């Protein structure tokens, strides 16, 4: 199976709660290579652009307010089956429904403040990576 990339983000709640190091450790232990990484503060407008696919959803305002509330750590990850594996590692959106040992079960505060983001497809992984990183920034 060929390697693929996915986009991952450590959200403001996990950054504020000092879980960045533990999450990065887990990423490496799961066999991901971090191709690019940076800590940034996303503006409300940038958050709205990034999550534009959810614009009509009832949680859009809450989500974009949250993502722009503090720094995030944006990453491009690579490994075989990267998208599916990362989504398995992070767990269900609602930490109450997430499996034991998943990142959201261990570190999320709530369904809305759920510690990490993961792309839902290879195509979206590429789009989301390009939102945060230029070609020169990718390893």
Shape: globular
Q: Within the largest sheet, what's the order of strands? A: 2-3-1-4
- The end-to-end distance, rounded to whole angstroms, is 21 Å
Beta-strand content bin: 15-25%
- Briefly, what CATH class? Alpha Beta
Q: What is the CATH T-level topology? A: Alpha-Beta Plaits
Mean pLDDT: 96
Give the tally of β-strands.
4
The parts where pLDDT drops under 50 for at least 5 residues are none
The ordered string of helix (H) and strand (E) elements is EHHEHHEHHEH
Radius of gyration: 14 Å
Domain module tally: 1
Q: Give the structural class.
A: alpha+beta
Largest sheet: 4 strands, antiparallel
Helix content: 25-40%
- The total count of helices amounts to 7
CATH H-level superfamily: Nucleoside diphosphate kinase-like domain
Characterization of the model:
This protein has 139 residues and is an alpha+beta fold. The chain has a single domain, classed as Nucleoside diphosphate kinase-like domain (Alpha-Beta Plaits). It contains seven helices and four strands, in the order βααβααβααβα. It has a four-stranded antiparallel sheet with strand order 2-3-1-4. α3 crosses α4. It is globular. It starts with a strand and ends in a 7-residue tail after the last helix.
Topology:
Elements: E1 3-10, H1 12-16, H2 20-29, E2 33-41, H3 44-50, H4 60-67, E3 71-80, H5 82-90, H6 103-107, E4 116-118, H7 122-132
Antiparallel strand pairs: 1-3, 1-4, 2-3
Helix pairs in contact: 3-4
């Amino acid at each position: 199976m060929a390697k693929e990339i996915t986009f991952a983000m450590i959200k403001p709640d996990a950054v504020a709660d000092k879980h960045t190091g533990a999450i990065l450790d887990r990423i490496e232990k799961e066999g991901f290579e971090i191709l690019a990484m940076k800590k940034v503060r996303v503006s409300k407008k940038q958050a709205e652009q990034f999550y534009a696919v959810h614009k009509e959803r009832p949680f859009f305002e809450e989500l974009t307010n949250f993502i722009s509330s503090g720094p995030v750590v944006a990453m491009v990850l690579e490994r075989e089956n990267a998208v599916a594996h990362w989504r398995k590692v992070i767990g269900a959106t609602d930490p109450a429904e997430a499996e034991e040992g998943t990142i959201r079960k261990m570190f999320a505060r709530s369904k809305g403040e759920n510690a990490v983001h993961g792309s839902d497809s290879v195509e979206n992984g590429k789009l989301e990576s390009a939102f945060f990183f230029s070609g020169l920034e990718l390893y």
